Structures are given as C-alpha cells and as structure tokens.
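thoughts on my protein:
***
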Amino acid sequence: SLNGSVFPDDEGRRHCHAHALFALLEAGQPSLKGGHLKDTTVLYTAEIELRPVVGGTIGYKFNSETGTGTWRLD
C-alpha cells in the first residue's frame, strides 16, 4: 500500500510525502513493515494514480521552529 501527496513549495519545487505498508514473510511468519517512503526504485512496473485537488490548492511551508514542513491549504 502506498499513499501520500505531491505539492509545490513557494519556489515551485515539488515535494512528496508518502506512506508505505509492505506485507512480507519473516522467519516464515507473516509480517508488516511501514512508514515514510523517502526513495524507491521500481523493478518492473508500478500503477500510480494522481488525483488533483478540487476547489483549492495544497502548498508547502517550512516551520523553522520544528524543523519540518507542513501543508499550506489555500
């Protein structure tokens, strides 16, 4: 499973915030691993669906106090 958002900052640079969940076997037992997906390579193919925001825009702003970025909803 993969979901998240792609949005521009004030300079027009694109940012991606994605969450991933993977099902796998560990020592013969079913297991789940998940978290933020920062970078990946697709080996064969991937189906990716992008949906536009309707009725507004999503931007990005950096918060120097927390050291993280947040959405700017316009």
Q: What stands out?
A: The chain is about 0% helix and 55% strand.
